[in-house]
């Protein structure tokens, strides 16, 4: 390369040029100055037109520039174009010595070949020798002309100028080395950045492949609602809802509630809730309409920066249409079977009751067997009722302002006989009145289930206590027993349908595992919650939380 000094932003353009053009451009600045001087000579210094050395210097410059343009330098080896700056010293020497004493400052033009040689990349020793020898040869003829009367000023002038050019060459050489080092560092950083970019793209492709391979839809959005990441299943979900791809959660979307008919308002859509900073799981919505409508279970987690600011959210979509339809079919089967069982059982119980009305006329052993039939038939009826209730998706509650204290008293009174048979003491510490927004019939059913369970799981006797606390928003009822208790793991599953604790099975305590499932369903339909706290051999506490007040009236 002719001039590594030019290897910067314009250097990229310079490198694209041919060698001949590069050589001509390196010679062009000096040539332009010589042309200006030559044009000005007839007017400013006409006497120089008769100086053979001066005219020869101008002609030599012209020949050198034509040589830059005409010689096929790219075909020649060992960079012969470096002869051009060496010959420039001779041409400048002819100009300077031919124009003396009118233009002694022409020696300064030697800086151009010095720069060219210093930045050419040739051996440092060679460029330094030429940078000193060339200017020295330019100055020697003038010093030789004054040889008989050579003064200290002449010697200083002849020696100082080559030293100045040598220092210029050294400065350019050091600058070139520094620039080359910087260029090498930049090239290394450029390679590093390219490697990082390639690795980033590979990781991005890997992430896209992993996300598309999952059987759930995944979307990550920033705080303003624009998508950061999404996979193919999530995009299919959005297409099924007819969503606008511009901003998530906005515009018309076919996203319905659990009844499959009511469109969800924009602020209740999963992605809108996530963008608002909510964290949720198992939020069921229906996407699309008609035969293609799908049940989608959604979950969301917020994205939080290190300083605690909400920066976005991740939302996961799971198609649970098959599971929902299977559950509905299962509930319909249970409901149908329960209905078919109920009629013959009612007939059995009714006829047994009629026979037992005349028990005095029956032999004692027959009356005893009929009582067993009656007891087991009633138990089957209770089980069928529990199955029907657990399978029902339309369990209705009609909440109103209700005094829970009276419901607690009624429940304890109803269970008194059973508690006495099991040697269980019952007590209540409930303020009266204790107002809540609840359905008295359904909450009475909840209390009856909890109290009967407490008695049932206290086979060796014990104590049952009901307490209550209230604030402006919630009322909390606690039913505590000192019975056998269950493990912490079982306490987390106790509200699942058909679940029975291992301790209950070992103790042969009868039950179908439906009562607490129904209890939770009733409480949740009120907008409340129920939890179980228990430990093996430590008894159990069930805490029911209900709203203290109803929703504000609408006008």
Task: Explain this structure.
With 555 residues, the chain is α+β, with helices and mostly antiparallel strands. It contains 17 helices and 13 strands. The protein has helices at residues 9-16, 19-44, 52-70, 83-99, 111-118, 124-145, 152-213, 232-240, 270-275, 321-356, 364-391, 404-414, 416-421, 440-456, 488-493, 502-506, 515-525; strands at 217-222, 227-230, 255-256, 280-287, 294-304, 310-319, 400-403, 424-429, 435-438, 462-470, 474-481, 529-534, 540-547. A hairpin with a 5-residue loop joins β12 and β13 (540-547). The protein starts with 8 loop residues before the first helix and ends in an 8-residue tail after the last strand. 27% of the residues are buried. Mean pLDDT is 80; it is low at 1-9.
Features:
13 strands, alpha+beta, single chain, disordered N terminus, 555 residues, 17 helices, six-stranded antiparallel beta sheet, five-stranded mixed beta sheet, rod-shaped
TL;DR of this structure?
This protein has 555 residues and is α+β, with helices and mostly antiparallel strands. The protein has helices at 9-16, 19-44, 52-70, 83-99, 111-118, 124-145, 152-213, 232-240, 270-275, 321-356, 364-391, 404-414, 416-421, 440-456, 488-493, 502-506, 515-525; strands at residues 217-222, 227-230, 255-256, 280-287, 294-304, 310-319, 400-403, 424-429, 435-438, 462-470, 474-481, 529-534, 540-547.
